[in-house]
Automatic annotation (TrEMBL):
Purpose: Specifically catalyzes the decarboxylation of meso-diaminopimelate (meso-DAP) to L-lysine.
Catalytic activity, EC: 4.1.1.20
HAMAP family (alphabetical): LysA
Entry protein name: Diaminopimelate decarboxylase
Keyword Lyase listed: yes
Gene from which the chain derives: lysA
Alphabetized Pfam families for the sequence: Orn_Arg_deC_N (PF02784), Orn_DAP_Arg_deC (PF00278)
Alphabetized NCBIfam families for the sequence: lysA
Length: 424
């Protein structure tokens, strides 16, 4: 459930008319709903009530400090995959003791930063990384609590670009290498084995592959304990899917939590979750303005002021985002079939193909729904377009939580090389 609804024919985020935000901030821009973020975090927390559980919001899905601060207040921890995300989480007030560090390519500098901050856990993804972490920890007289991310060789379904738990994916340690690597971890200075980690993909609506992966990991946990490892935690990653359109019916958090309770029963483990999309996805929209309509022989193009640089999911994953007009169209409004495209000079700059929408005129505004996860975080300044701004709504008020840079700011980090700069 989210808080984007029509009131008197105008699309609102909570109690704020989205047209008002579009007027004041300009389009394209992202708008997030605090009430929705809080609600989603609460739904997950209550589904896991009674289980020893850390909810580490996956910062990669939406790393805005305003969003992270909202979730920090709800007691969320963070799953980070870079030194930058770690600093964002800390800055937003998420305690280091609730932060886990995932990702296949941590640098020594990022490890040092995380060790000095005192994070909850490193999710280690290779032998090389484990050895490097041992060196960095010993050099700094610190100890790294680790889980090894294992690759359970389970296909999660969904788009191939977001599946991570199959043999051949770059993620995790191959299943047959896991136990030898735990043995090595136990012998390395500066390393303290605390858990096992798995994450099989994203936008997973079906609990069957998740259960299969988690059961495999429980088997591994038992064997590791028998071998003398003190496994106290199980990090089950993120990946729970959300509805993007009518008819989508992903497993709800309650069923996910019940499945996890069943699989981990009697093990005495702290469960760590890394939900991203299920918290942030339906908590955000991207607003855009229609620029032109262009009739081609077989296609009716609707050209809008947002591009794939602002929201890349359709271009990258064939992702569907519902498109709603900010001014509600009546039941008897004309309808048209559009290819909705942006201004970027790339053929993949297409948000929707043959989409049936109420007829739209230049100047009218639209909202791309379910854009709170992997939206603004994946935006770029391609075609020298300013990075898209972000707005957070809270009841009847809103604040700009990232403003649009002006041209001077966009080029502030660049310079003309010295040899082209005439000296006096
Ligand atoms: N943990 C790890 C280790 C991950 O790699 C991810 C997502 C998550 C947690 C959070 O997954 P979530 O709960 O959000 O599904 N850009 C793609 C999705 C990429 C997901 C990457 N990893 C998209 O827009 O669909």
């Amino acid at each position: 459930m989210h808080h984007f609804t029509y009131k008197d024919g105008r699309l609102h985020c909570e109690d704020v008319d989205l047209n008002r935000i579009a007027d004041e901030v300009g389009t394209p821009c992202y708008v997030y709903s605090s009430a929705t973020l809080v609600r989603h975090a609460g739904v997950i927390a209550s589904a896991f009530e009674g289980q020893d559980c850390l909810i580490a919001f996956s910062v990669k899905s939406n790393g805005n400090i305003g969003v992270l601060s909202t979730l920090a207040r709800e007691g969320c921890g963070a799953d980070v995959v870079s030194g930058g995300e770690l600093q964002r989480a800390l800055k937003a007030g998420i305690p280091a003791s609730k932060i886990v560090f995932s990702g296949v390519g941590k640098t020594a500098e990022e490890m040092r930063l995380a060790l000095q901050a005192g994070i909850h856990q490193f999710n280690v993804e290779s032998a090389g990384e484990l050895r490097r972490l041992s060196e960095v920890a010993t050099m700094n007289n610190l100890e790294a609590p680790i889980a090894i991310r294992v690759n359970p060789d389970v296909a999660a379904g969904g788009h191939p670009n977001i599946s991570t738990g199959k043999k051949g994916d770059k993620f995790g340690v191959p299943w047959s290498d896991a136990e030898p690597l735990y043995a090595e971890a136990a012998s390395l200075p500066g390393i303290r084995v605390v858990g096992v980690d798995v994450h099989i993909g994203s936008q997973i609506g079906d609990l069957v592959p998740m259960r299969a992966a988690f059961e495999k990991v429980i088997g591994l946990t038992r064997r590791l304990r028998e071998a003398g490892h003190d496994i106290q935690r199980l990090d089950l990653g993120g990946g729970l899917g959300i509805p993007y359109k009518a008819g989508d019916d992903p497993a709800p958090p309650s069923a996910y939590a019940a499945m996890i309770a069943e699989v981990t029963a009697g093990m005495g483990l702290q469960v760590i979750l890394e939900p991203g999309r299920v918290i942030s996805g339906n908590a955000g929209v991207m607003l855009s303005t229609v620029l032109y309509e262009k009739q081609a022989p077989d296609t009716n193009f609707l050209i809008i002021d947002a591009g794939m640089n602002d929201l890349i999911r359709p271009a990258l994953y064939d992702a569907h985002h519902d498109i709603l007009p900010l001014d509600e169209s009546g039941a008897d409004a004309d309808r048209k079939t559009y290819d909705v495209v942006g201004p970027i000079c790339e053929s993949t700059d297409k948000f929707a193909k043959s989409r049936d929408l109420s007829a739209l005129q230049p100047g009218q505004r639209i909202a791309f729904m379910s854009a709170g996860a992997y939206g603004a975080v994946l935006s770029s300044a391609y075609n020298a377009r300013p990075l898209v701004p972000e707005v957070l709504v809270n009841g009847a008020s809103f604040d700009i939580i990232r403003r649009r840079p002006d041209f001077e700011e966009m080029i502030a980090l660049e310079k003309v090389p010295d040899w082209l700069t005439p000296t006096a």
